[in-house]
Each structure stands twice: as structure tokens, then as C-alpha cells.
From TrEMBL, chain A:
Classification via InterPro entries: ABC_transp_permease
Protein name: Xylose transport system permease protein XylH
NCBIfam families associated with the record: GguB
Subcellular location: Cell membrane
GO cellular component: plasma membrane
Superkingdom assignment: Bacteria
UniProt organism field: Gracilibacillus halotolerans
Automatic annotation (TrEMBL), chain B:
Statement: the UniProt record of this protein carries the keyword Repeat: yes
Pfam family for this entry, one: ABC_tran
Lineage top rank: taxon: Bacteria
Alphabetized SUPFAM superfamilies for the sequence: P-loop containing nucleoside triphosphate hydrolases
GO CC terms: plasma membrane
UniProt KW rRNA-binding keyword: no
GO terms for MF: ATP binding; ATP hydrolysis activity
Gene3D superfamilies found in the cross-reference section: P-loop containing nucleotide triphosphate hydrolases
Keyword field: ATP-binding, Cell membrane, Membrane, Nucleotide-binding, Repeat, Sugar transport, Translocase, Transport
Species: Gracilibacillus halotolerans
Membrane-related topology note: Peripheral membrane protein
Limits of the ABC transporter domain: 7-244, 265-509
Protein's recorded name: Putative multiple sugar transport system ATP-binding protein
Subcellular location field: Cell membrane
Length: 385, 517
């Protein structure tokens, strides 16, 4: 029992967030008479929030280093504009335009990372400048007008689904992937247990592991089954899951990830441990530029146009997602999964409130309170310890 | 009887959990005197002054304070300042981007109905500046004047509060020869105006130069009060009172097996990172042999940490010159990782600010400086990490419920063991430890000493920086003393007594050179 208690106490923030997500989802399930759980709506939820989740993944790294990036909304816009000009005006092949757009995003990251890491201008200022600069460049590129439409192949980035092999009513590849994912989770959990036993560490009781797996697998399978009843697994979800897996691995298992946490946790100590913290901050910004570019492409593809107002205020959604997901303003704390859960909390609320007809005015207000409550809870539990 | 005394502190006892910082201290200052308070680091000088100024409010200590013959029970600094007791700390408390005049009247503004009267502010500031011998305009921004002048502004600020008793904590530590001389002359000048002062200083030549009386504290007790008006007091006489601390910590036995020279520093010079004309380390040379423990003894401000950090990948200072030799070869450490790779590592004196990531767990802290050892193709092997951290935990006897515990939740002694583990994990040849037992209880100290001895036995060259003389003497095979940025002497274990060391630690390091500045 002790280990379970410890497990809960040490992860209260993470579990608290997941519990909150479940409660909020449940609340809207009741309020919408279950409409939010229909296959169509679940698909929509993903399509609507995919780019915010991508932004949140990039943003959480920036925030862990103790910085902030206010420019990602404008970067989303300028990348959409670049893609629009390249593809629609200049007729560049889609795949080349995509690569060039991603490169442009990385270059923006290089620019901002240089000022923050090597010159030492506070990231708040650098990216506030960036927010204006890239919004202005968007207006200039688009001449203040929208560009549309994109070719079908480009729209697939955001609106596509994985192919339906077999072609029946139920999307078989989606079901297949659900089963593979479930098996992978079982394998990972049991490998972890055997390694913990091997190193004589505390191991969770078997029934806890099994219960955890049972809940996770039924949620995943239910979710995937619902998607399979609609059009199958959206490309966006494949991208997001891919990013979650890659970035969770980087943050937990690689030297780079460890250096990011160390830099944010205590920069002076990291310096005196031989970590090149300037380089770390620089690359985190480059990475964020790249991911913001990816989000920009997804956004443009979903809208099927490049517009001057694209991505307005998106940076605030991404930052809110990261803080709801348990990151600390002071740096050193935060997880990719947390940011994703935070993003989903925001997404489920947006979606649910729209379904029951709450206006945009109250939606904003309620989201503001949720952000405040989540972080206040965080501060409260930390002080209590 | 109290007619002559402006201040009488009687039987002051102040306890912190587990430590008696002050033990029945008696301290009296005569009206119009300059009274010096001397003692080693940790002798209780600062604590005594905090009791006096109300930082530790009445009720948290035992004993009685009489000011001008009246019993005083200060609840905070404001109350003591109202009576004219003003303390000037070693770290100046000026607001750097406000003007001199604004700083002088900070919290005490010349105003009517919350509107500042600027003309009165500047006029009065000008008068005060004249009294301390400053000719700068009161509108000058504080960050634009040097430390010496800032010190004088602090005194002007004290004068604005109608000071009766001025307390100066290490006022000349950051000053050069000229500024120090100025400041001391100012103290003598104020004395003529009837202002009494308490001077806390490590620089015994200054103490003997200006004091009327000298009180020596040691281990939280008053040792003696010397009166300089009757007989001349020599520096040696003061040192005799300061040292002779009881050996409260025992030291583990050891048979040193000393080999060849592993690491050598030659003619090392370092300048202050901001004040580029201020020399922090002056021509320091030292070496350490395999299996040897070398002590560097110096009081606060002697440049010990600056020396070590400038060696460790130029982490401190500017315009660094000199040579480093490792295993007979000339080396150059431009970054911290250069030094770590060459096997020279430095464990900081301030583990919370510079040593550890307190919001991360024990295992991540231990492996951070040498992730390579548990990594293949940039991927960290968690199993190797757990095994390694567990091994360190057992080896250094780190008391923690698990290696997943956050370092911030551990006690000071155990945090220090994590720091040691971290640097040993980099497999060094030379280990520089800066105040390795600061803020640690006696039991944990003994454990750290045992570990240090064990490491030396395994062939490491260890440099221990410490201001605690018993510690330096108990641990070291050979000792360098430092004072004012210079290595003043090399003392063998056989010749190392607390008195000889203290003499060299308070010697005027910059001696002849100072005149050329």
C-alpha cells in the first residue's frame, strides 16, 4: 500500500491532471447527452486541436529551460504564408514547399535562439519582438489578403486519414494499430517490472500494473474503435502520437533531454557540471521554431488557406496547455505528456462548450479560470510539502 | 557605572537548533570609542550584531542589552535604528540604479504628504557627503561610483539617521589600500564628532591601527577584551586569542601514500569580472601530489573560491594569466568540460546555488557531470544509471529513502555526499573541495572527512579549501595560506599550528605591490 501511496503522492500533479481530464470529459458527456463521444465529434476534436498539441510539445521544452516563446502564433501565420506563396503563387511542388517551410521555421528558431542564448536578451522580449516581426512579415508576404485554395495533396496534412485496407465499414487498419499499440504497452510495462526486479528496486504490486494496463488499453481501444466507425485514424493523430513518443523518449532517455532539465533546474550548477547551457537553450529554440512551422503547415492545411490573421493568440493556448500540464514558470519541471494532457483539457473544454452552445465570451472566461485554478493548485501542493 | 558605556550586552545566549551560536557573551562599548570585534569565521560576530540590531528580535535570545544605560528590547531593525544603532553590512545594501541622494534617504524620504522634496533632499545629501569626504554630486547614480565610494554613501546614509553607534561588518574587504585608508580615517573623524563604532574585521593591521578596544570572540564565547589605550597590542597577541578553538570534530587516522606531482598552478593571476582593474588573485602558485591532501587556509574574502573557480574552466574572473600543468604537461582549461575531461574537478562551497539541481532526484544529480559513462549513442541507459547511483549511495552512505528522492529534500550533510558522489562519478585525478563541511553537523563532518581520506588513499590528489583551522590541520598533509589574493605561505603538517596559520592568513598579502597601484 505504501508504494501506491508514494506513487500517488509523488505524481499528484500528473494524476490530478488526468483525473481532471476524465472529470471534464464526463461532465460534457452528461451536458451534451453523449454527443461529445460520437465518432464524428472525437475525430473533429483531434482535427481541431492537433496543431495546438504540436505547439505545446515544442513549448514545454522552452518552458523547462526557464524561457518562454510568445512568437509561435505569428510563426504559424508566417509559415502558412510562405507555404501559400510557394505552392499557390509559385507552383512549387508540395513536398518541396513543405521542406522549405520547415527549414524556414528552424531558421526562425536560429534567429530567436541566437538572441536569447548568446546575446542574453530575455526570451520574453526576443519573442515579443518575434511576435510582431513575423506577423508583419505575414502581412507583407500576403499583401494583407488570404491565399486559397491549396491543392488536395497539401490538405491531406491536416484533413487526411490513414488508408482503409480492406475497405469495409469498419476501418480495419485503425483496429489493427490499436491492437499493436495495446500489445506494445503490455510489453513495456512488463519489461519495466522485470528490470526493476533485477535491480532490486521497489516494484508496484502486480494487480496495480494490471489495473493500470486494463484502464489504458480499454480507453485506447474504445477511442480507436470509435474512430474506426468514422473515417479511421486521422493523419494529424499519427503526427501527434509520433511526436509524443519521440519527444518523451528524448526528454527521458537522452543526454540532450537531461541537459534541458538540468539547465532549467539550476543553470549555474549545470554550467559548473560542464553542460553548455547556452547551446542547450539555442537548440531548444531551434526545435520550437521547427515544431511551430509544422503546426503552421497543419493550420494552413486545415483552413485550406493562408490568411494574415492565422494563429492569432495560439501561443497563449500552447503556453496555457504547458502550465495546466504541470510545468513550472521557474523552469526545470514539466513533461511532454503533461503538456499534451493540458492541451487536451483545453481542447475538450473548447469542444464541449461549443457543443452546448456557450458563447466565445464565456468560453474565454472559463478557460482563464481553469488555467488559474490549475496553477494555483500546483503552487498550493508545493507549499504544503 | 553605565555612564561611560553607550552599549552593554550582558550574558547574551543565542541558540539555533543543535548549535549554541552565542554562549553568555558580554560585550561593552565605551562612548566615543572605536571598538573592534574579531574572531574566526563562525565565531559568532555576525550573530551578536544581529542580536544587537534586532534582526533576531527580543525573546529569541537570552540576556540583556543596555543602550545608553537603558534596557532595550528591539523587536526589529527599525527600533534599533530609531535609537541610532546602524549596521552596514559587508554586502552593500544600496539600490544600484538610484542616485546617491535617493539612496541616502531611502525609506526615510524628505517629504511632505508623500511628495518628495527634491531640493531639500539634494541639499541635505550634499551636507552629509561633505561630512564623509565625498565630492561627487548627490545626483550621481550609485552604480557609476566605485565600491569604496559606495561604502562612504552607506555611512552618509547612517549619518542621516542620526547615528550614535555605527557597526561596520568587514567594511574594507572589498576595498583597495587607498579606499581602506580613507575609510579608517573617516572612522577616526567620526569619533571626534562623538560617534561610537564597532568594527568587525579580519585585517588585524587595521584593527590595531584604529581601535580603542578589541574584543575577541571564539566559538560563541567572549575570550577577552583588550584595551589599547594603556599598552600597544600586537597582531600576534590578538591571534593568540582568536585561535585555540577546541577540536570539536575528531579526525579519522590515515597513513598518506604520497606520489608524484599531479597538478600544478604557476603564477596565476585573475582580475575581477566587473571591476577590471581589481586584482583578485595575485601570482598564486601551488601544486598537489598523488594521494596527498593539500589544504588552502584563508579567511572569507581571501580569494580561495576565486582561485579555484578560475582554474576550473575559467568559471570566475577576467584577464586570467598563468600556467596549469597536469601530469607534467601544460594544459589549458577554457571550459568546465575541458577541466572535467582532464580529471580536474571542483566541488563548490555553495551546493544549493552552484552545486545541485534541488528539484531533480538523487540519481540524476549524481550522473549529470559525466553522462557519457552511462550513455551509448546519446541514449542514457536507465539501468546503468540506477546501478551507478545505487553504488554511490552505498559507498558514500547517502541517507535517502531512495535514489528517486529529490535532492532538495535531503539534509545538508547528505546533499554534500551527493555532491561528492557526483564528482567522483567523473573519475577525477584532482579533486578541489571548497568548504566541504560548511553547514553540516559534527557527525556528518566525520563521515565526509573519512570519505576524503579514503579518496586520497585511492590515489586522488585532493585540495581542501577551508576557513576552519582545525579542519585544515586535521585533514591536510601540507597547507597553503591565502590572504588578500596571494598565497602567503606554505606550511608543512608538522609546523602547522593554529597560531602560525592565522598569522599568515591575516598577513598583508598585497604588501609591496599595493603601493604601486
Amino acid at each position: 500500500m505504501q508504494t501506491i501511496y508514494n506513487l500517488f503522492r509523488d505524481n499528484i500533479r500528473q494524476y490530478g491532471m488526468i483525473i481532471a481530464l476524465v472529470l471534464i470529459t464526463g461532465l460534457f458527456w452528461i451536458l451534451t447527452d453523449g454527443i461529445n463521444f460520437t465518432p464524428l465529434n472525437l475525430t473533429n476534436l483531434i482535427l481541431q486541436n492537433g496543431f495546438i498539441l504540436v505547439l505545446a510539445v515544442g513549448m514545454v521544452l522552452v518552458i523547462i529551460t526557464g524561457n518562454i516563446d510568445l512568437s509561435v502564433g505569428s510563426v504559424v501565420a508566417v509559415i502558412g504564408a510562405i507555404a501559400g506563396v510557394l505552392i499557390i503563387n509559385m507552383g512549387v511542388p508540395v513536398w518541396i514547399a513543405v521542406i522549405l517551410s520547415l527549414l524556414a521555421g528552424a531558421l526562425i528558431g536560429v534567429w530567436q535562439g541566437f538572441w536569447v542564448a548568446y546575446v542574453g536578451v530575455p526570451s520574453f522580449i526576443v519573442t515579443l519582438g518575434g511576435m510582431l516581426i513575423f506577423r508583419g512579415l505575414t502581412l507583407w508576404l500576403l499583401d494583407g489578403k488570404s491565399l486559397a485554395p491549396f491543392p488536395d495533396s497539401f490538405q491531406k496534412i491536416s484533413g487526411g486519414f490513414i488508408p482503409n485496407i480492406g475497405g469495409g465499414d469498419i476501418h480495419l487498419l485503425t483496429i489493427g494499430l490499436a491492437i499493436i499499440l495495446s500489445l506494445a504497452l503490455v510489453w513495456i510495462e512488463f519489461r519495466k517490472r522485470s528490470q526493476q526486479l533485477q535491480h532490486q528496486l521497489d516494484v508496484l504490486p502486480l494487480w496495480v500494473s494490471l489495473l493500470k494496463l486494463a484502464i489504458l488499453i480499454s480507453v485506447i481501444n474504445y477511442f480507436m474503435y470509435q474512430l474506426a466507425l468514422n473515417k479511421g485514424l486521422p493523419t494529424v493523430l499519427v503526427i501527434v502520437i509520433g511526436l509524443i513518443i519521440i519527444y518523451t523518449f528524448i526528454m527521458n532517455n537522452t543526454v540532450m533531454g537531461r541537459h534541458v532539465y538540468a539547465t532549467g533546474g539550476n543553470r549555474k550548477a549545470a554550467d559548473l557540471s560542464g553542460i553548455k547551457t547556452k547551446r542547450v537553450v539555442f537548440w531548444v529554440f531551434v526545435n520550437n521554431g521547427l515544431l511551430a512551422a509544422l503546426a503552421g503547415l497543419m493550420f494552413a492545411a486545415r483552413l485550406n488557406s493562408a490568411t494574415p490573421a492565422a494563429g492569432n493568440m495560439l501561443e497563449l493556448d500552447a503556453i496555457a496547455a504547458v502550465f495546466i500540464g504541470g510545468a513550472s514558470m521557474a523552469g526545470g519541471v514539466g513533461t511532454v505528456i503533461g503538456a499534451i494532457v493540458g492541451g487536451l483539457v483545453m481542447g475538450v473544454m473548447n469542444n464541449g462548450m461549443s457543443l452546448i452552445g456557450i458563447g466565445i465570451d464565456w468560453q474565454q472566461t472559463i478557460k482563464g479560470f481553469v488555467l488559474l485554478a490549475a496553477v494555483a493548485f500546483d503552487v498550493y501542493t508545493k507549499n504544503k510539502r | 557605572m553605565s555612564e561611560n558605556y553607550i552599549l552593554e550586552m550582558q550574558n547574551i545566549t543565542k541558540e539555533f537548533p543543535g548549535v549554541k551560536a552565542l554562549d553568555h557573551v558580554n560585550f561593552k562599548v565605551k562612548k566615543g570609542d572605536i571598538h573592534s570585534l574579531v574572531g574566526e569565521n563562525g565565531a559568532g560576530k555576525s550573530t551578536l550584531m544581529k542580536v544587537l540590531s534586532g534582526v533576531y528580535p527580543y525573546g529569541t535570545y537570552d540576556g540583556q542589552i543596555l543602550f545608553n544605560g537603558k534596557v532595550s528590547e528591539f523587536k526589529d531593525i527599525k527600533q534599533s535604528e530609531e535609537l541610532g544603532i546602524v549596521i552596514i553590512h559587508q554586502e552593500l545594501a544600496l539600490s544600484p540604479y538610484l542616485s546617491i541622494a535617493e539612496n541616502i534617504f531611502l525609506g526615510n524620504e524628505r517629504q511632505s504628504k508623500n511628495i518628495i522634496k527634491w531640493r531639500q533632499t539634494y541639499q541635505e545629501a550634499e551636507k552629509l557627503l561633505k561630512r564623509v569626504g565625498l565630492t561627487d554630486s548627490p545626483e550621481t547614480i550609485v552604480s557609476e561610483i566605485g565600491v569604496g565610494k559606495q561604502q562612504l554613501v552607506e555611512i552618509a546614509k547612517a549619518l542621516s539617521k542620526d547615528v550614535k553607534l555605527l557597526i561596520l561588518d568587514e567594511p574594507t574587504a572589498a576595498l583597495n589600500e587607498n579606499d581602506s585608508e580613507n575609510l579608517l580615517n573617516l572612522l577616526l573623524e567620526l569619533k571626534k564628532q562623538g560617534i561610537s563604532s564597532i568594527l568587525i574585521s579580519h585585517k588585524l593591521n587595521e584593527v590595531t591601527q584604529v581601535s580603542d578596544s578589541i574584543t575577541i570572540l571564539r566559538d560563541g564565547q567572549t575570550i577577552e577584551t583588550l584595551n589599547t589605550s594603556e599598552t600597544e597590542i600586537s597582531e600576534d597577541r590578538i591571534i593568540k586569542g582568536m585561535v585555540g578553538r577546541e577540536l570539536t570534530s575528531r579526525f579519522p587516522d590515515r597513513n598518506p601514500k604520497i606520489g608524484d606531482i599531479v597538478f600544478e598552478v604557476k603564477n596565476w593571476n585573475v582580475y575581477h569580472p566587473q571591476q577590471s582593474d581589481r586584482k583578485m588573485i595575485d601570482n598564486a602558485s601551488l601544486f598537489v601530489r598523488k594521494g596527498e591532501i593539500v589544504g588552502i587556509a584563508g579567511l572569507m574574502g581571501a580569494g580561495r573560491t576565486e582561485l579555484a573557480m578560475s582554474i576550473f574552466g575559467k568559471s570566475y574572473g577576467k584577464k586570467i594569466t598563468g600556467e596549469l600543468w597536469k601530469d607534467g604537461q601544460r594544459v589549458e582549461f577554457n571550459t568546465v568540460s575541458d577541466a572535467i575531461q582532464a580529471g580536474v574537478v571542483y566541488a563548490t562551497e555553495d551546493r544549493k546555488t552552484y552545486g545541485l539541481n534541488l528539484i531533480d532526484d538523487v540519481k540524476h544529480n549524481i550522473t549529470l557531470a559525466n553522462l557519457k559513462r552511462i550513455t551509448s549513442r546519446n541514449v542514457i541507459s536507465k539501468n546503468k544509471e540506477i546501478t551507478a547511483a545505487d553504488k554511490s549511495r552505498k559507498e558514500f552512505n547517502i541517507k535517502t529513502p531512495s535514489i528517486d528522492q529529490l535532492v532538495g529534500n535531503l539534509s545538508g550533510g547528505n546533499q554534500q555526499k551527493v555532491v561528492l558522489s557526483k564528482w567522483i562519478f567523473t573519475d577525477p585525478d584532482v579533486l578541489i573541495l571548497d568548504e566541504p563541511t560548511r553547514g553540516i553537523d559534527v557527525g556528518a563532518k566525520f563521515e565526509i572527512y573519512t570519505q576524503i581520506n579514503k579518496l586520497a588513499e585511492q590515489g586522488l590528489a585532493v585540495i581542501v579549501i577551508s576557513s576552519e583551522l582545525p579542519e585544515v590541520i586535521g585533514l591536510s598533509d601540507r597547507i597553503y595560506t591565502m590572504s588578500e589574493g596571494k598565497i602567503t605561505q606554505e606550511v608543512t603538517k608538522e609546523n602547522a599550528t593554529q597560531e602560525t596559520l592565522m598569522k599568515y592568513m591575516t598577513a598583508k598579502g598585497m604588501g609591496e605591490n599595493a603601493n604601486n597601484l
